[in-house]
Design a protein that fits this description.
The complex is a heterodimer.
Chain A lengths: L38 H5 L6 E7 L13 E5 L9 E6 L2 E8 L4 E3 L8 E2 L7 E10 L9
Antiparallel strand pairs in A: 1-2, 2-7, 3-4, 3-7, 4-5, 5-6
Chain B lengths: L1 E6 L2 H8 L9 E4 L6 E4 L1 H5 L12 H6 L3 E3 L3 H15 L6 E5 L2 E5 L8 H15 L4 E6 L2 H13 L6 E3 L7 H6 L10 H7 L7 H5 L3 H7 L2 H10 L17 E11 L2 H21 L2 E12 L8 E12 L2 H16 L6 E13 L14 H17 L33 E3 L1
Parallel strand pairs in B: 2-4, 7-8
Antiparallel strand pairs in B: 1-6, 1-7, 2-3, 5-6, 9-12, 10-11, 10-12
Helix pairs in contact in B: 10-11, 12-13
The chains are: A mainly beta, B alpha+beta.
Chain lengths: 142, 417
């Protein structure tokens, strides 16, 4: 019999096949045991360079980012044309489309004008938005 | 070769990561209970804000000069420190985390010519990935890497990277550096060196190591060898498991009633037991102490050592012991207590070993309860042992603390969309 010490902390990510070893027939699925899926693995490529931030406002509505969504921001990747980025503008963190051809930050809402990138010193791209998370039902942890 | 990487004005720089408005502005961070200034951004240093000055003496002046002031935000600093260390580990298989904001890297087998470029790469990567500026010093010994790091930060033309690969070529620079800048040579030792007319780093290099060992200690001799390029200190990748665990605090307000003092040690006992369980250990002897401020005329301090009948990591047992020690042996009605603490001083491994077969251990039920407590605390913030008190007036004051940006769901940085 294979005895696996189970640490309650890692229980959530352990395959549950492992716990059915006591009696009766062995599970036919045992030979196919795999790691269960992890949201972190899917969305976070560079854990030490990834920050979570909270969106506030309606300027990115047409990109699917709504007020109070959580954004996953990766600082490690190079920003490309058309990425949604986080930038420091006038001392404030803001989230917009990056348009390199026109050298500006563009909202996803026609009510907001584009913000020209004049001075690299003045506007620092902080990171690239990889994903946004919206809760469709309130959840105790956020 | 070794590299010493450390973050520039670490606490102050952490405060600037999510606040673009504070970049290139004067920022200072205060110690526990907002007592003293413990970190200054380079702009604050340039303004002449002194280090380690009591905050209340200078609060008005800072306000007028437009300096942003923060309480220590250890939740944030701890998380960013971990990110820095993880990012550094990409550059080397051997890394010694030396403190919250610095680490030694082992760099064997890298051609000397490419070291400056590697240094700038490390600096650029940490700045981009984590958002923190670092300085990089490299040398054939840890002591030289540390000294190179000091030079990297002092001399503007280094641009925060300095490589000392042949120490004998640096003697001109070493002649100008005061000896107390050397790792392990404190200002006290430096004062004693004055008897031998040793003032600069170069003066120390020219001393005979054996003589210095006789006059001072073996570490001085080793340091001289290290400054000459002979490695004597190795990387300590796996620091020895803790032999003792302490949880100590200064109070926000003076404590004069017995119940509050009991509640405080009860809280520190819980905290210490949490660490104990993380290290998979049990405690055999508990130390409890409390004292008044050192600066009052009737300075009072008591320490009680309590051997336990059963080795345990159950918060309830240790809280109980700590409260009893306060009630029976430490508390005095006339004393304004300024700090208290709990030390777990004799530790055993949790898994029984043959040698310890005669020491009784705690039961399974208590183990399960404590595991559950730790899990809940980790996921949902604090649940308490009742004796800790709920909102005590003696709790540490951090009135100017920034949000725990990276560790709490309801304190995430806000971006304008």
């Amino acid at each position: 019999m294979n005895v696996v010490p189970v640490n309650p902390k890692t229980l959530g990510s352990l395959s549950f096949y492992l716990s059915y070893v006591a009696a009766g027939f062995p599970s036919p699925a045992d030979d196919y045991a795999e790691q269960s899926l992890s949201i972190d693995e899917l969305l976070i490529k560079h854990p030490s360079a990834t920050y979570l931030v909270r969106a506030s406002g309606d300027s990115m509505i047409r990109s699917g980012i709504f007020d109070q969504d959580i954004l996953i921001v990766d600082r490690a990747v190079e920003p490309k044309d058309g990425d949604i980025v986080i930038a420091g503008v006038d001392g404030e963190l803001t989230c917009k489309y990056l348009n390199l051809a026109k050298r500006c930050l563009v909202a996803a809402n026609p009510a907001y004008p584009a913000i020209p990138i004049r001075d690299e010193q003045d506007m620092v791209i902080e990171g690239v938005v990889i994903s946004s998370i919206r809760l469709h039902r309130s959840c105790t942890r956020s | 070769m070794y590299a010493l990487v450390d973050c520039n004005s670490f606490f102050a720089s952490c405060e600037q990561v999510f606040r673009p408005d504070l970049r290139n502005k004067p920022v200072v961070v205060l110690s526990n209970n907002d007592g003293c200034i413990v970190a200054r951004s380079k702009e604050a240093k340039r303004l002449g804000v002194p280090d380690l000055l009591p905050y209340f003496k200078i609060a008005d002046q800072l306000k007028r000069a437009g300096v942003s002031v923060f309480s220590s935000n250890y939740e944030l600093y701890g998380d960013l420190s971990m990110r820095v260390m993880n990012t550094l580990s990409v550059f080397s298989n051997t890394i010694e985390v030396y403190s919250i904001d610095e680490a030694f890297l082992g760099l064997n087998g890298i051609p000397a010519k490419t070291l400056p470029a590697l240094g700038h790469d490390i600096r650029h990567t940490i700045l981009k990935y984590v958002g923190l500026p670092v300085g990089v010093g490299m040398g054939p010994t840890k002591t030289l890497a540390k000294l190179a790091n000091h030079i990297a930060k002092q001399s503007p033309k280094c641009r925060y990277v300095c490589v000392i690969d042949q120490p004998e070529r640096w003697h001109k620079v070493f002649a100008k550096l005061p000896v107390h800048k050397v790792w392990g040579i404190g200002s006290r030792l430096a004062k004693r060196f004055a008897d031998l007319e040793v003032y600069s780093v170069l003066d120390l290099i020219h001393q005979d190591p054996e003589k210095m060992q006789r006059l001072y200690n073996v570490n001085v001799a080793r340091t001289i060898n290290e400054l000459r390029g002979v490695a004597c200190f190795e990387l300590e990748e796996h620091p020895e498991a803790k032999q003792q665990i302490f949880s100590t605090r200064s109070f926000g307000n003076k404590v004069t009633d017995c119940l509050s003092l009991e509640q405080s040690v009860s809280q520190y006992a819980s905290r210490a037991c949490e660490k104990l369980r993380k290290e998979r250990k049990l405690v055999k002897t508990v130390q409890v102490f409390a004292s008044s401020s050192r600066f009052i005329t009737n300075y009072y301090s008591r320490t009680v050592v309590v051997p336990l009948a059963t080795a345990t990591n159950d918060s309830r047992t240790v809280c109980h012991v700590a409260r009893q020690a306060v009630r029976k042996h430490i508390y005095r009605p006339s004393v304004p207590f300024a700090r208290a603490g709990v030390g777990l001083v004799e530790l055993l491994p949790e898994a029984p070993e043959q040698l310890d077969a005669f020491i009784p251990r705690q039961g399974e039920a208590s183990k399960t309860l404590m595991q559950t407590l730790d899990q809940i605390n980790q996921r949902h913030g604090r649940i308490f042992i009742a004796s800790q008190g709920i909102d005590p007036y003696w709790r540490m004051q951090r009135n100017l603390k920034s949000p725990a940006y990276t560790t709490r769901w309801n304190e995430l940085p806000v971006v304008k969309t």
